[in-house]
Amino acid sequence: MTAATTATTRTATTPAAGAVPARAVDLHRDHGRGATAVRALRGVSVAFAPGTFTAVMGPSGSGKTTLLHCLAGLDRPTRGSVHWGDTEISRLPERRLAPLRRRRIGFVFQAFNLMPGMTVEQNVELPLRLAGSRPERGAVRTALAEVGLAGRERRRPAELSGGQQQRVAIARALVTRPDVLFADEPTGALDRATGHEVLALLRAGVDRSGQTCVMVTHDPVAAGYADRVLLLADGLLVEELERPTAALVADRLGRLGTTGGPFPASRTEV
Ligand SMILES: Nc1ncnc2c1ncn2[C@@H]1O[C@H](COP(=O)(O)OP(=O)(O)OP(=O)(O)O)[C@@H](O)[C@H]1O
């Protein structure tokens, strides 16, 4: 297969349940009710194989963040289901979902979301503390070394560059060794060169440690680091691109009629 090989599917592969760290089946998500309800997702089925890097793309408002949040257990579907391995998480009460999410899911945000009053080390050990385990200094140092920040443990976020702060956020997301790392526009607040360092780091985590990674991005060049691109439009999965190149992704986004401009999801009575 060439790098430009594409496959168009409306419902992505249905895999063997337990082998897949995250999948969604017929996912619907409405925001609000009645005449002003927004149908952000309108029946998305997708699976993420272990050790793969997937980019989620599509016009602004097409449902990317909603999909990521539902997959990560940060939002609830209106209809359909989300599964982590053999566990359906979409109907779990929050008191059961929260500990599972802390153990099995890592999340990286565009704006880093570090705790400004804490040191780098304290930020990275936070998920371990929240999970109720006594943070092993070794685990935190290893996570920081993996993102190239050994020796910065005692710094505060404000003393670091944007790229370094995002690397701390990645170390924090990976310190629990999650089944899936979700990243919502992780390079959106970074300059191009620094963004590439962060993308190379995510790619290395997939290649070296078999990490499963799912990233929302608007940038075709960023998507070129992934194994697969899912293209959303108007709350639907409209295309999958295997082994994407930046040029191919830019072309497909262009055909969707936008490179990131407004493209609102359906507003209908539900
Ligand atoms: N909490 C909410 N309440 C009402 N509408 C919402 C809410 N969250 C998202 N939406 C709407 O749902 C649709 C999908 O939003 P979402 O943020 O998932 O899209 P997106 O593809 O990530 O957009 P962008 O690229 O602009 O970040 C949009 O029309 C958005 O306005």
TrEMBL record:
Keyword ATP-binding applies = yes
Annotated stretches, region: Disordered: 1-20
Give the Gene Ontology MF terms in alphabetical order: ATP binding
Residue span(s) of domain ABC transporter: 22-259
> Highest taxon of the source?
Bacteria
InterPro entries, per database record: AAA+_ATPase, ABC_transporter-like_ATP-bd, ABC_transporter-like_CS, ABC_transpr_LolD-like, MacB-like_ATP-bd, P-loop_NTPase
The record ties this protein, via SMART domains, to: AAA (SM00382)
* Gene3D superfamilies in alphabetical order: P-loop containing nucleotide triphosphate hydrolases
Q: Which UniProt keywords apply?
A: ATP-binding, Nucleotide-binding, Transport
Q: PANTHER family, alphabetically? A: ABC TRANSPORTER RELATED, IMPORT ATP-BINDING PROTEIN
What is the protein name given in its UniProt record? ABC transporter ATP-binding protein
The species this protein belongs to is Kitasatospora aburaviensis
